[in-house]
Amino acid sequence: MSVQVETLEKNMAKLTVEISADRLEKALDAAYNKQKKSISLPGFRKGKVPRAMVEKMYGVEVFYEDAANILLQETYPEAYDESGLDIVSQPTIDVVQLEKGKSFIYTAEVAVKPEVTLGKYKGVTVTKIDTSVTDEEVDAEVETQRNNNARTVSVERPIENGDTAVIDFEGFVDDVAFEGGKGEDYPLTIGSHSFIDTFEDQLVGKKVGEEVEVNVTFPEEYQAKELAGKEAIFKCAVKKIEAKELPELDDDFAKDVSEFDTLAEYKEHVKTNLEDKKADEAKRAKEDAAVDKAIENAQMDIPEAMLMTQCRQMLDDFSRRMQSQGLSMDQYFQFTGMTADKMMEDMKPQALKRIQTRLVLEKVVEVENVEVSDEKLDEQINEIAASYKLEGAKLKEMMGEREKEQIREDLKVQAAIDLLVEQAKLA
Question: Which of 12, 123, 152, 234 could form a disulfide with 214 if both were Cys (CB 3.0 to 4.6 A apart)?
Answer without folding.
Answer: 234
